[in-house]
Amino acid sequence: MNLHHLDQAPATMLTRLETQMRVTDVRFSSDDRGDRQLVFHDGDDIELVPVNFRYTSLHFDIAGIGNELTVCVNARNSNGLMDQMTGEGVGPFVFRAQTSHLLRNDALLVEDRWQINPFPQPLVFEPTDRTGKPQPHVAIVN
């Protein structure tokens, strides 16, 4: 996955974020307490940024048409992604994703306990008579 700092993202990705926005401010929180290495490709430079996902809260904006999307990730609070080497926030970044990647399920229920499924499966949607309240912070653009 090619990550790009927002201020160094390719022009095509920035244009897509400006003109083809589909969903804004989707939120994700995690406390998996795992370390990761983010690999940023900015121009000809490659930067490895070690981060920790302890108490992480991320906000996503998703733009695009068809099967390819541009996803903008922003850690908008003090518990966001921090560079373990510098102690500074990683800041907003963008990457390309296939539509199907947003609809993958990596959780598996085994003996009444949720576990990570090593083989992500597509989500299955079934019709239901139940209704829910829309999340107030998620806005459908088109």
Topology:
Blueprint: E1 4-5, H1 11-19, E2 21-30, E3 35-42, E4 45-52, E5 56-65, E6 68-74, E7 93-98, E8 104-110, E9 113-122, E10 139-140
Antiparallel strand pairs: 1-7, 2-5, 2-10, 3-4, 5-6, 6-7, 8-9
Structural notes for this entry:
By secondary structure, the protein is mainly beta. 6% of the residues lie in helices and 49% in strands. The protein has a 6-stranded antiparallel sheet, with helices on one face. It has a two-stranded antiparallel sheet with strand order 3-4. Strands 8-9 form a two-stranded antiparallel ribbon. 12% of the residues are buried. The mean pLDDT is 79.
Sheet/helix structural class: mainly beta
* % residues in beta strands: over 45%
Question: What are the secondary-structure elements, in order, as H or E?
Answer: EHEEEEEEEEE
Q: How many beta-strand segments?
A: 10
The parts where pLDDT drops under 50 for at least 5 residues are none
Helices, by number, come to: 1
How would you sum up the major sheet? 6 strands, antiparallel
- Gap between N and C termini: 27 Å
- Strand numbers in spatial order across the main sheet: 1-7-6-5-2-10
Q: Helicity range of the residues? A: under 10%
Shape: globular
Q: How would you state the average pLDDT, rounded?
A: 79
Can you give keywords for this protein?
6-stranded antiparallel sheet; 6% helix; two-stranded antiparallel ribbon; 142 residues; mainly beta
Give a nutshell description of this structure.
By secondary structure, the protein is mainly beta. It has one helix at 11-19, and strands at 4-5, 21-30, 35-42, 45-52, 56-65, 68-74, 93-98, 104-110, 113-122, 139-140.
